[in-house]
Specification:
3-stranded antiparallel beta sheet, globular, about 250 residues, 10 helices, 2 domains, about 55% helix, alpha+beta
Length: about 250
């Protein structure tokens, strides 16, 4: 039986990816599974999902833990690309929740599904019909939530841009102008618009290449990055600039 919590977070990212993973009985590492599903479903960060970096540390890999929160639509897309009977059941579960079947318990909205999977297409038509006939009051509330979310996104992006610029300045200063750069600072300098997920992938690739060549990777402290920043020579980043371009 599916047991999934719809979190009352104040925005549209209401489903914890680890709960989806657990309910679908997937094997292997959660992070590997969720990144593969995000790629297969062509989901977009800050539209279909958001990554929260928690204060706890992932001891096995020595970095901050990350939490993947999905919209209901994003979670439904994960179910579609997973292609299993449990995934089909969870998609039906989410459609029934959108139809207003779930009771509200405390600060969370919880729906436990114990019914056979039936005509999903019919349920989807019912959901769309209910959305069309939504009350003006509920519509106004959703618009307000979207405006608040947009404001948060703008503030977050502004802080990220400021952090990237500060990181570039700090690196030049601390390395005595030897022209070494962090991947994020280099992307900002070259004008590449990359989100945290893509920058993380590039950073892993650069680190792997550098180790393979026997290059010493320098790590410096910076207030925006608790685990420090890997920096690379300018000519090394120029050689592998295609990693930034293809993302």
């Amino acid at each position: 039986m599916i047991q999934l919590t719809i979190h009352d977070t104040g925005d549209k990212f209401v489903i914890d990816g680890k709960e989806i993973y657990s309910n679908l009985n997937r094997k292997g590492a959660f992070t590997t599974w969720v990144k593969r599903c995000i790629n297969n479903a062509e989901l977009t960060e800050l539209k279909d999902f958001r990554i929260n970096f928690t204060s706890g540390v992932n001891k096995r890999k020595g970095r901050m833990s990350s939490e993947y929160m999905f919209t209901i639509e994003g979670a439904k897309q994960l179910c579609l690309v997973t292609k299993s009977s449990l995934a089909k059941e969870m998609r039906l579960y989410l459609i029934r929740y959108e139809n207003g079947d779930a009771p509200k318990i405390g600060t969370d909205i919880v729906k436990r599904l114990d019914v056979p999977v039936d005509d999903i297409d019919t349920l989807e038509l019912i959901r769309q019909s209910k959305l069309v006939t939504m009350s003006l009051e509920k519509t106004h509330k959703l618009e307000l939530q979207h405006k608040q979310l947009a404001t948060k996104m703008i503030e977050t992006e502004a802080k990220a841009d400021e952090a990237k610029k500060d990181a570039g300045v700090a690196i030049d200063y601390l390395t005595n102008n030897t022209k070494c750069w962090a991947a994020a600072a280099w992307a900002s300098k070259k004008g590449y618009q990359l989100d945290s997920y893509k920058l993380s992938k590039i950073g892993l690739s650069l680190s792997k290449i550098a180790r393979g060549r026997g290059l010493s990777i320098t790590k410096i402290h910076h207030p925006y990055y608790p685990n420090g920043i890997n920096i690379y020579p300018k000519n090394f980043l120029e050689e592998f600039e295609h990693l930034f371009q293809k993302n």
